[in-house]
Amino acid sequence: KESHTYWLDDIRLPSVTEIISPLAEYYKIPKAQLEYKQDLGSKFHDAIDLFLNDNLDEDSLDEALVKPIRGFIAWWKEYTSCFTVNYQNRVEQPLYDEKLKYAGTPDMVGLETVYDWKLRPFNKILDPLQMAAYSGLTNCSLQRVVSFDKNGNYKEYNAYRKNAWGMFRKLLEHYWEEQKFQKLLKGWKGE
User: What distance in Å separates the CA atoms of residue 68 and residue 164, rounded to the nearest whole number?
Assistant: First the structure.
């Protein structure tokens, strides 16, 4: 978990995020801002975990997370009011596909729906690919992204996009071809 890597025996599996990274345009974001946003996103997910385990102390939260967490709690109460099943054991559960050789950790897997919680607006390029990949890991037919803003407002998006699974598979194929090519280059250099 610390290195955010996935292993199947002695094979390092690429993460969903790693596979779709050629389409991410993080280079457009100043490094310090990107690191801050990534750290805040991690803290947001940690706070969600604390909330779901009935262990959240709001007074200990980064000020920038107080309203988004309150938004998450409102969404969670609305979501769970529709179900009698407790999904806590299906939150942040690492999964992998042995045949296709990739892995990921969806934020939550319901009976038919896979969810991802974002502390940013919905990204119509990356999010459908990520959710198609998670759908492939979970066999869930519905794909939802819930975006929370700094004021605690939230919006749930249907992340399904026709051809997203096909595009993800092409990116996965590209990843493995690049790995073979890099291995070939290292061999040529005698490394």
Answer: 29
